[in-house]
Amino acid sequence: MPKPLPQHVYFVGIGGIGMSGLARYYLRRGIRVSGYDLHHTELTRVLAEEGAKIHYDDRPDWIADSVDLAIYTPAVPDTFGELVELRRRGTTLMKRAGALGQISRRMPTIAVAGTHGKTTTSSIAAYLLESTGRDPVAFLGGISANYGTNYLAGEGEWMVVEADEYDRSFLELRPNIAVVTFIEPDHLDIYGEVASFEEGFADFIGRISPDGGVLITKPHIARALSRSIGSTRLVTYGLEDASLDWRAHAIRVEDGAYVFDLECPEGAFAGLRLGMPGRHNVENAVAALAACREAGVPVPEAVERLAGFKGVERRFETLGTFGRATVISDYAHHPTEVAAAVQSTKEMFGSYRVVGIFQPHLYSRTRDFAVAFGTALSDLQEVVLLEIYPAREVPIAGVTSMTIFDHITVEKKYLVSSSEAAALLRVLDAEVLLFMGAGDVDQLARALVA
What we know:
Blueprint: E1 8-12, H1 17-28, E2 32-36, H2 42-49, E3 53-55, E4 69-72, H3 81-89, E5 93-95, H4 96-104, E6 109-113, H5 118-131, E7 137-144, E8 149-153, E9 159-162, E10 177-180, H6 188-191, H7 194-205, E11 213-216, H8 219-224, H9 226-229, E12 233-239, E13 246-254, E14 257-264, E15 267-274, H10 279-294, H11 299-306, E16 317-322, E17 325-330, H12 335-349, E18 354-358, H13 363-377, E19 382-385, H14 402-405, E20 413-415, H15 418-428, E21 432-436, H16 441-449
Parallel strand pairs: 1-2, 1-4, 2-3, 4-5, 6-9, 6-10, 7-9, 10-11, 11-12, 12-13, 17-21, 18-19, 18-21, 19-20
Antiparallel strand pairs: 7-8, 13-14, 14-15, 16-17
Helix pairs in contact: 5-10, 10-11, 12-13
């Protein structure tokens, strides 16, 4: 039996994209919500308007005695004063993933895991369920352009959630349907070895309900995880390969949008239109369509709605112009994601002069993937490399943006600080500016457009 809902939930780090969605879930159920965050943001402003009590200083004495559940982000250190006080009081403490795990036991759940594509795939799935009248609850890792929010407070049967591999958070979930978009090493600061990282995904698949299903991109991944799949229904999906259960093919760009044909167990469908650039996003759309079919949505109904999906903020999002250049912001922070963003730009803009601006995210990721980042960025005509965005990490000796810069082979490459970037971009005379990274590089892009 699921545990009863708490009466007063306190969030340490309430303004994060994932934490804020969870706070909204409790608020919509009439539960008292309060919390701390380091920064005033648009997300915290909206939460305050919806009834959350938020402060921005580490003040343990401001935590109400009535708090019976505290949820914290792993980005907050164990020595943080409010965490120390909550432990002293004996308050029930859990990470966001633990709270999502409890919710996933209350309702059937579609969980989207994978190194890349989680936010886009889960956002498309949530949109398809909502637009076909299924009214889901959804916790998204980005702001849906269709709804202007990262949380859907539906009253329907299904929940959609990202299954985050960081800190092994996805092992708290008990999904009925799971999507595994891509298993490629990341977060080695947490997992240590590649084998341990892959083992985490095997464990996640082992937590799917026995009568559920798992949708996996490539057959070789399915074989590698076969011991964990057991009796769980296996569905494969992807691009072009005729051996897949669900596949997109004849992918082309028409009038600025990606168009493709779909083959699946229910038949063939021609001319599907996706209002979001990138072959990788076509693959994400196929995953979302298949997941929704597993949840009971007829394929023709979902196919009809797909063209109405408007995308996700910071996922190849066109922000406007800077000078004569079109400005695009993308969350790409792994070499494969950077390569996909660059390829999408080429397909969309052809021979236009493209300048890529990349902000590395985390010292450990820079160290682990420096060569791969250099290779991906070298597919651009010009590269502007910014300083590392540290996020939760302290510096690692000898690891700087120069670690990547030395592996970029294009002649026109520049290493600058964020404060120097605007002046440089004014003189480069680009036709497309592609901003990439999971840090605050998006703020730079939006400031230039403004």
